[in-house]
Amino acid sequence: MVIASEKKLVQALSLSKIFEDYESAFNEATGMPLSLRSVQVWNMAHHGKKFENPFCALMASTNRSCVACLEVQQQISDSNAQEPKTVVCFAGLCDTTVPLRVGNDLVGFLQTGQVATKKPTKAKF
Prior knowledge:
alpha+beta
């Protein structure tokens, strides 16, 4: 279970100048969003972020599709995570997290994604 101090740590890191610079460099180099988030989060990791996938932003605006997206966030947030993990959503878009640890304690995730690794087709969609 994540304690309040771990959530505060991740929040402080996400608001830091060093993360802001890293996020900006990552965004410009890849064209993809980047989020730093705590372990227990039930919201869209990249919603409102620079380079948020327009399809994902549209999906987040409706309750039924938003639930499917939130399920991906839940799948990717394994509290036993030791290594990076990628999950593919129903639309074929990938999200990847890298676990952030302080010693043995998981405190959060660095997350990117909302990207298709294969060209979408009508049949697959």
